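Researcher: Predict the fold of histidine kinase.
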Amino acid sequence: MEINKPTYIDLKNRVADLNQKVNDLSKLLDELRVENNNVSTSEKLNDYKTLDTDVLHSVLLKIKTPLDTLVGLAKLLSTSKLDFEERSNFAEIINNCSGELQGFFSEFMSFNSIEKNEIKVEKEQVSLNELFDDLKIRFIDQVFFKGLTLKSVKGLSDDDDTVLIDRNIITQIFTSLLSNSLKFTHKGFIEMGYQIVDSQIKFYVKDSGVGLATDLKEKLLSSKSEEELGLGLSTVKQYVSLLEGVLQVESKPDAGTLFYFKVPYIPSLVDVEVKEVKKTIKVLIADDEEISFMLLKKLMEKGNVEIIRAKNGEEAYEIYKNNPDISLVLMDLRMPQVDGYVAAQLIKNESPDVPIIAQSAYTFKGEKENVSQSFDGYLSKPVNKKEFEAVVNKYLGLSTLN
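Model: Structure tokens for histidine kinase follow.
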């Protein structure tokens, strides 16, 4: 499966975003210094836990070097003296480092909230399969750049995967565990999944990485100080505890790691009536790339929309002929057998008024002009959510759907 690498502009924006977050952390550190200087020792002891400035110092020191590296590489990418292989290697480094830093920022903010006792468990209806699809989309680029395989194992069907759980907490847990696996896995696979075991949901992340050191494994399984585990695992352990579970680990040096925990399984039956609502709006997505299709499907799933997929232009045309009530077509320009240009023209010959939106990761000169002759709109890959909603709303008005 071929996956689109991020463009230079995408990478540059990521670096800018990370740079802004560092500035925000620096301001927070300065504010805490001023606050600590103005408050007496007794007042500090009576106040709730405030994140120690030493932790902030540690955070800033850890991210300064990789961030400086990212900024430097982003500048080098803009020079014409680099050949394709060099630019590709730099892009890989930037993509991996930015992903790790973004995960670290997330862990830091979570750690800060836990220390202040700001985290409250709020259970809601969550589709576990959709949550895992979202995680896969989020991490697939980083996994791809490292040459790894990302597996997702789902223990329930789409018809009964809705449970009551805290979406934010479970997402934070998996984000940290997947980031940890990415950091220490250099070949092989990373796998995330869940299964129902004795009225509990067993969640897990395993990899074929370097494994945990024996002393770290013992600290994780013991009741020792959380600070000894590091920011990420300490946060995960506390989050799992909030969900009434216990974080467990199985690992041997150079033999991979398995993190898992069990939480109460509370199935939600409230969505049954919603799922029985007849879907009336059909959308054809013609795309041969699995990840690209998953992203579009996720962006489009709303209300009474039925998604139909085609993996090449010929299949797209045949599907449209058999489903003339299709309301919108999202057409990748470059597909096997029959490309998007030809498929769009064939469909337009059948129904000139059906809106067809082109999508492509390529930006060759004149391509947008060619698109305007056969298509009603254009989306660049990877698809931006706001641009996607603006284009689709023009023809379907998704905001008015159930």
